[in-house]
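User: Is it possible to get a 3D structure for a protein together with its bound compound? The compound here is pantoate. I've pasted both below.
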Amino acid sequence: MIILDTKKDFKKHINLLKSKGERISLVPTMGNLHDGHLSLVKIAKQNSSKVITTIFINPLQFGKDEDFASYPRTINEDISKLKKLKCNILFVPKNQNEVFNNIDNLEHLKAGPKGSILCGKIRPGHFDGVLKVVYVLFQLTQPDFSVFGLKDFQQLYLINQMAKKYFPKLKIICAPTIRNKNGLALSSRNSYLDKKSIKIAPLFYKILLDGINNLKISKNVEETIKYITANLEKNKFLVNYVSFLTTELEKLNSNTSKRKILLSSVKLGQTRLIDNIEFS
Ligand code: PAF
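Assistant: Yes, that's possible. Here is the predicted structure of the complex:
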């Protein structure tokens, strides 16, 4: 695996791959790689001849009271994991200038109304920051494919919209959520959970699943949201939101034929957890 830390070297290698006609997949990450990330790399490998992973903790997507400083940094372990999977190139920008040397040029990248609901409501500006870094990485890499996890459903939706507009040839691949055996969706932030919370956390997914069953019987979205919220609160989760929407992140009408999704974010102690379940 080739490891690069400057934009100049990265571009040089990309040009080389392109000149050889390689099909490139990009897997953008913030590091602290777990099996969820590794599944993205595996999917990338199945779809292309060369896989590029990036590790960059993007300051623009963290609010001022958020965990940018304490976000887990495990570069040596990450490198070993990627080597094992035979990732071809790892780009770890050595500083922010290697990514954002002209931030004013990115002002047009706004997540818009669908970036201001759900997680965007509790983390103002978060998705603008995500779109900016992903746009820069797409511009640098010009990949044929890029893989993102369905766990961050709203992020994936917004990246897909951005890609359609600015990178029409790029195919975004949606990768299934990887869960531990208790159902908890894997996330780098799970490492913040203390011993007690680690035992409670899997209830999040179970309560959401139960909520979907409840909706199927009651057919009442508002009542089901109250039911799920009460269940979460009873189990010590602080609820940020519980929302039933279409997979286009639009309001759900009772007789819709569109695909449906339940999305939620909670806090358990100081740790924010998100999850979602698509259902019919
Ligand atoms: O999902 C993440 O890890 C990040 O939001 C991403 C897409 C790598 C952008 O920084």
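The first helix runs from residue 7 to 19. The two ends are 42 Å apart (CA to CA).
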